[in-house]
Amino acid sequence: MTDRRHFLRNTLLALGGATLAGCDRISESDTGARVLESAEAVTRRVQRFLSPSRALAKEYAESDISPVFKPNGTTMPDTPLYQSLLRGGFSDYRLEVDGLVARPARLSLEELKALGSRTQITRHDCVEGWSAIGKWTGTPLAAVLDHVGPTDAARYVVFHCFDTYDEDTPYYESIDLDEARHPQTLLAHALNSKPLPVANGAPLRLRVERQLGYKHAKYLRRIEVVASFADIGEGNGGYWEDNGYEWYAGI
Amino acid sequence: MPNTRLVYRHRWPVRVMHWINVVCLFVLLGSGLQIFNAHPSLYWGQRSDPGKAVFSLQGGVDAQGAPRGTTRIGSHAFDTTGVLGASKVNGQWRSRGFPAWATIPGPGWLAMGRRWHFFFAWLFVVNGIAYVGWSLFSRHLARDLVPTRSDWRGFGRSVVDHLRFRHPEGAEAARYNILQRLAYLVAIFVFGGGIVLMGIAMSPRMDAVLHWLVDLVGGRQSARTIHFIIAVAFVAFVLVHVFEVLVSGPLNQLRGMVTGWYRIRDEREVTRHD
Questions:
Q1: Which residues are in the Oxidoreductase molybdopterin-binding domain (chain A) (predicted)?
Q2: How many domains does chain B have?
């Protein structure tokens, strides 16, 4: 009986080890990764079917706001351009909006604020698993899009950022027009009624409330309206997407 | 083997879906622990305020500079160096919640852990819906799983039998006993349904329409904590399940779940020869 138990235990351990090693091999193979990635399209379609595109993320009360809104990723972009803008209190900052638009624009923070304003207290869910609640004030992206007039070919909005990763890879993100025109999708310039701190993305960051934190690009430099993001970065629609994360970050 | 006969115990859909489930739970657990490792703390409520974790696996070094893994549950701290909080990956000490031998993939790789998790989560959901649908349609649920009045009457005896590792071998073995029925019903509907719902409750997109569910369980971080607790409950279920298989004739049980045919003692034969 002990022999049989030993045999069973060893067999199970060996099987488990081999299975885990097999999983690692699948993770590192192109085909394996591609098969696993196919789930993203299912998630996107099912979630969009079950949760209508106009549905609003829950908004919270002032009393729910996190004592500290945890900054993540870059907390101080070190590029000379950003540093000089920061020294000038962002008075020289202009957000470039171009690409497939009728009227490309370079907008100062004051001009942006004049386009419209929305304040919302929402929960920010990081891909790592943590959540923080903050009060964001900003210009609805829809108002900016109306200002520049996307052409008929426009499908995505790409956000180019001041911060870089891995020495010189610029951070960027992208969302589709549907998400871009969602009423809670903001170019936020204030957190908890104060100008956006550098650690949280000053002077301007994206809020795209129904997706995970890495979609909420910080340190916005330029907004580009495109038909496809295949030629940007490594072609997956964002810095983290180029590193294996989902473009659709609804879960 | 005198006086035994084979009975057809598990129909093919049950067998197929059972083994799909085995694969799903294995991958979901390993990839789930990989995802957990990205932020190895659990909280109650909507937010994850620093210092407010109800459970955490932390890595660090002790006064001598040696690696130290600490598991905190509420205000209690346990030294779990080597397994939880700090463990070796390819011979190198790392601060990581669960060790490399328990996660998919082995090394820290959140993006890939998520890919595995959501692929197999869909398989688990589709398999689960197919199982419940088939069980209703074929009356597997009503006939084999929902306890009968006589099952309930035998509750006490069944508990004693289980504690003594005594298992029916005659005609009784061809059907599920009361504890099996209850365990399977809880695993399927409470654990299976609950863990999927808590997973969905963590989705910011789904929260736009399901915030009542998130609020019902206390918040998004509560949902994450419950998701984790149910995963632990699944592990406990599987341990007991496999233990029961091992003590009640593992090869016979395995054949039952692979081919459908299960050997029982033929009591009619026994009485005839008595």
A1: 91-227
A2: 2
Q: Give yes or no for a contact between B90 and B7, defined as CB atoms under 8 angstroms apart.
A: no
Expressed in angstroms, the distance from the first to the final Cα of chain A is 48
Tens of pLDDT, residue by residue over A128-143, are 999 999 999 999 999 9
Domain holding B231, by residue range, is: 4-40+101-273
Residues B144 and B186 in one domain: yes
What's the rounded Cα separation, in Å, for the pair A209 and A186?
9
**Among the listed residues B179, B225, B180, B185, the one whose alpha carbon sits nearest the alpha carbon of residue B202:** B225
Residues B83, B183 share a domain:
no
> What's the rounded Cα separation, in Å, for the pair B27 and B33?
10
Q: Are residues B197 and B228 in the same domain?
A: yes
Residues A92 and A130 in one domain: yes
Instruction: Give the domain extent around A16.
Output: 2-45
Kindly identify which residue of chain A lies nearest to residue B207, measuring between CA atoms: A57
By the CB < 8 Å criterion, does A108 face chain B? Answer: no
> Which has the higher per-residue pLDDT, A20 or B212?
B212
From chain B, pick out residues whose CB is under 8 angstroms from the CB of A8. 246, 250
- pLDDT, one tens digit per residue, over B74-90 is 999 999 999 999 999 98
Q: Coil, strand or helix: which one is B233? A: helix
> A24 in contact with B at a CB cutoff of 8 Å?
yes
Global confidence as pTM = 0.94
Indicate if the pLDDT at residue B210 is higher than 70: yes
Among A163, A121, A156, CA closest to A248: A156
Task: Return residues 200-219 of B near A (CB < 8 Å).
Answer: 200, 202-211, 214
**Is A127 within 8 Å of B38 when comparing Cβ atoms?**
yes
Q: Check CB contact under 8 Å for A39 and B119.
A: yes
Do B115 and A8 make contact, defined as CB atoms within 8 angstroms? no
Interface of B with A in 97-156 (CB under 8 A): 101, 104-107, 109-112, 114-116, 118-119, 121-122
